[in-house]
Amino acid sequence: MIRFLLYRLALLVPTFIGVSIVAFAFIRMLPGDPILLLAGERGMTEERYQQLQHLYGFDQSIFVQYFNYVADLLSGDFGTSIVTKRPVLEEFFTLFPATLELSLCAIIVATAIGIPAGVFAAVKRGSWLDQSIMGVALVGYSMPIFWWGLLLIIFFSGMLQWTPVSGRISLIYFFPQVTGFMLIDSLLSGQKGAFTSAASHLILPTIVLATIPLAVIARQTRSAMLEVLGEDYVRTARSKGLPPMRVIGLHALRNALIPVVTTIGLQVGVLLAGAILTETIFSWPGIGKWMVDSVGKRDYSVVQGGLLLIAAIIMIVNLLVDVLYGLINPRIRR
Amino acid sequence: MAHTQALQDKPATAGAMRKAMLKEFWYYFSQNKGAVIGLYVFAAIVIIAVFAPIVAPHSPSLQNREALLLPPFWEQGGQFAFPLGTDAVGRDILSRLIYGARFSLFIGVVVVTLSVSFGVLVGLVAGFFRGWIDTAIMRVMDVILAFPSLLLALVLVAILGPGLMNAMIAIALILQPHFVRLTRAAVLSEREREYVVSARVAGASRLRLMFVTILPNCLAPLIVQATLSFSSAILDAAALGFLGMGAQPPTPEWGTMLADAREFILRAWWVVTFPGLAILVTVLAINLMGDGLRDALDPKLKQS
Amino acid sequence: MALLEIENLTVTFKTSSGPFKAVDSVSLSCDKGEILSVVGESGSGKSVAMLALMGLLPWTATVTADAMRFDGRDMLTLSARERRRIIGKDISMIFQEPMSSLNPCFTVGFQIGESLRLHLGMGRAERRARSIELLKLVGIPAPEDRLSQFPHQLSGGMSQRVMIAMALACNPKLLIADEPTTALDVTIQAQILDLLVRLQRDHGMGLILITHDMGVVAETAERVQVQYAGQKVEEQDVKGLFADPHHPYTAALLSALPERALRRGRLPSIPGVVPGQGDRPPGCLFAPRCQYATAACQTAPKRQDRALGLALCNYPLVDGVPQGHPGKAAEVNA
């Protein structure tokens, strides 16, 4: 297991180097002078230009520049926002909990509905239940989620007035950030109605963000279950006289989960891509909206830092999924 | 069964054999009702796109100052002249959707062509030459796949500048690693097969081995992946359009139309609903076809 | 009354090209302390009949029988729930592929303990003690360590021993062994067969041994039933069967045994294959492969009496000579 982990970790090194090269090259590939872009100042004198060029290290060779960049990264310096002049890492950590809360809710919803739906479809293979579950899943899989979010807003916020349109919590509540998770912080604050407000803000974005992972998980669970249900050990379990619930829910599902867990892990990239759209639609103050806004505002040092941090998150989650895969698959555990 | 009968008649020529293979393919494809529906819907969209100037009741850019934000005809205040209503500057939504189909299909075709040709070429090279070339190529692909697709597309468009063409290039770039991986895996499994070895022994050149001997036998997974990429290309391009980084207004691209419509979302539901519905129906039709293709081309699933 | 009595069991599968009779009016009985062997080529419906008894067939199968009694209970009218109280407890079954018949995700101890908890309501410590006892019984060394192992850590022979331990967990009255040695090495085969026979004697169980291997039959069985294409073609005790087979198919099977090939030269084989769904002959199912078939065999053959081994044949063999056969001239397939 430890060797397996170390091997996976070693594979990440070249990918991380590649990712840092992409982030490093990004600023230099933008149309226009990178120094002018980074400084964000107009009407710069020649003297000031030289000064900045030296400050950013652009007067050195490209290799020295890259090594300095990586050294900065390793010491935790991900650059400074051109617009707000705050360190990128600091901005990231204030915004990331919002994305994390939303993504966790979405993946929980997607898993909690997707796995049972896939299992039912597989067990009732070919029935109208199977066909409708798979039909809905394919619609979900084909959904332009930015439109889906707008539709939900029209219906639930506009016509029914059930849910708010944007943000994480109603502006009348204010309390200090403790965990960064609005659901938990609102409970901790003890203010009446704060939790309900936070939850009602979370519902629509969660549905929108969960849609595609839900569809993918349901489809993958169904096909994994179909494969497993034909296995000899399922027949053995039934021959013991075990009730069908136990045969399907324990003996079959336990095996089908192995590929499904990998699929769930792969959804993290999908979730973060989805977060870009979802957060934009619902004005959710997370890193997805942060990236879109920064591209719009030409705050390229934020884009550069964010690109790297988001890729790092995905790589870490993939590593965790590998560990989990090893844990649930006895053939790898020892 | 009719199809097995057709296969048993020994085909005399390559043409007859191809015909028999097509027949077998169609048999399996048509078993999947959803796939056939998807195919019909997709064909209808293609016809509408091709004949857009004939089908559309209005010009997509004609602004009718006296008909701003008209609802669809069945709502109160709607007019038959504008069946699905008009947008904020009085353009007919139906006509814009019909012209928009052209853009979506164009995006799909260009992106898939770009990413397939590049991806297959690189994948062939990686799988065929192995060694450090292979390692280097696959690490680069890993790096591309380490980013969320839409984020990378967004950043690429920031570099290239917003616009439909650049959005397509960006999307092609983020989709091609899938083709590289697929092609490479297929080549690796095929290259040790007897027929490849015998072609090599017979003195076939490397290029011939790559393109004439190996490639045709890796086609099935590539076709399925190309279909799925077609739909993700349309979705991603619409998403970029929606974020203001794809096709620019007043282009009647569906995602861009949605971006324009956002501010009227609580006042005029139709300006938001129809463009998205068009995207959903198109993507759904292609994905239905993709599922059918996978069933028909994957010999592993054929038996069940 | 025998422990298990099955009269005229028929199993029909729904397939895309019409119904398929896998088992055709098969009668079978097995008493306490008796070993019955069911012999036939693959596709002769041996396993299907037993799976029908266990209720393990897929929903596409239709099971009909004049009687199916086990231990005085009518298995045909039992509800699924009542049947599950019997199978795994009073009737248990082991399968052909021991490696894939054990669930790869659960430990040996868990899989043995499951039946103990379900049928006998044993607690944790009791289950552990009984599992160790069972593993000792089937000859597994260091049973305490094996309990926490996963199936992929066991060899094929070891897996089959675990399967036998599982089957014996609740002291069944009847054990069905479906080709228990086919997937194993020859040396292991003999060990497993010896084990099965010893356990059968010690526990006074009924044992139904399904096999295609006449060698296995000779070593273990007391009574033999030969099946061909879903029909029972002959039934005799093992000595009589080997000394004087009455059905041409049995005779052909026996002469294909290497030990019986007296003359030098090629081992005789039976031409052709078991008829499938599309090529079922109208009369005797063995006629196309039978050297004695005549025009009379184009209609359903006669069932002979017990003295002639209940042979399903118009010209039963006595000492290798077909009785009442019109002679070479009338033969259809020379």
Automatic annotation (TrEMBL), chain A:
Keywords: Cell membrane, Membrane, Transmembrane, Transmembrane helix, Transport
Superkingdom: Bacteria
InterPro entries per record: BPD_transp_1_N (IPR045621), MetI-like (IPR000515), MetI-like_sf (IPR035906)
Primary site of residence: membrane
Membrane spanning residue stretches: 6-27, 95-121, 133-157, 194-217, 256-282, 302-328
Pfam families referenced in this protein's UniProt entry, alphabetically: BPD_transp_1, BPD_transp_1_N
SUPFAM superfamilies linked to this entry: MetI-like
Cell compartments where the protein resides: Cell membrane
Bilayer topology: Multi-pass membrane protein
GO MF term list: dipeptide transmembrane transporter activity
Residues covered by the ABC transmembrane type-1 domain: 96-325
Family: Belongs to the binding-protein-dependent transport system permease family.
PANTHER family membership: D,D-DIPEPTIDE TRANSPORT SYSTEM PERMEASE PROTEIN DDPB-RELATED (PTHR43163:SF8), DIPEPTIDE TRANSPORT SYSTEM PERMEASE PROTEIN DPPB-RELATED (PTHR43163)
Name the UniProt record assigns to this protein: Peptide ABC transporter permease
Species: Zhengella mangrovi
The organism's taxonomic lineage, starting at the top: Bacteria, Pseudomonadati, Pseudomonadota, Alphaproteobacteria, Hyphomicrobiales
TrEMBL record, chain B:
Keyword set, alphabetical order: Cell membrane, Membrane, Peptide transport, Protein transport, Transmembrane, Transmembrane helix, Transport
Gene3D superfamilies: MetI-like (1.10.3720.10)
Statement: the UniProt record of this protein carries the keyword Cell membrane: yes
Membrane topology value: Multi-pass membrane protein
GO biological process, any: protein transport
Record's keyword annotation contains Transmembrane helix: yes
Main location: membrane
Superkingdom of source: Bacteria
InterPro entries xrefs: BP-dependent_transpt_permease (IPR050366), MetI-like (IPR000515), MetI-like_sf (IPR035906), OppC_N (IPR025966)
Gene Ontology annotations for the cellular component aspect, listed alphabetically: plasma membrane
Alphabetized GO MF terms: dipeptide transmembrane transporter activity
Pfam families reported for this sequence: BPD_transp_1, OppC_N
Spans traversing the lipid bilayer: 35-56, 103-129, 149-175, 230-247, 268-289
Location within or outside the cell: Cell membrane
Domain ABC transmembrane type-1: 101-290
Protein family per UniProt: Belongs to the binding-protein-dependent transport system permease family.
Protein name: Dipeptide ABC transporter permease DppC
Source lineage: Bacteria, Pseudomonadati, Pseudomonadota, Alphaproteobacteria, Hyphomicrobiales
TrEMBL record, chain C:
Molecular-function GO terms, alphabetical: ATP binding; ATP hydrolysis activity
GO CC term (a single one): plasma membrane
Location in the cell: Cell inner membrane
Mode of membrane association: Peripheral membrane protein
Domain ABC transporter: 4-254
Domain of life of the native organism: Bacteria
Keywords from the named record: ATP-binding, Cell membrane, Membrane, Nucleotide-binding, Transport
GO aspect biological process, one term: transmembrane transport
Record bears the keyword ATP-binding: yes
Subcellular location, principal: membrane
SUPFAM superfamilies: P-loop containing nucleoside triphosphate hydrolases
Listed Gene3D superfamilies: P-loop containing nucleotide triphosphate hydrolases (3.40.50.300)
Family indicated by similarity: Belongs to the ABC transporter superfamily.
The protein, known as: Dipeptide ABC transporter ATP-binding protein DppD
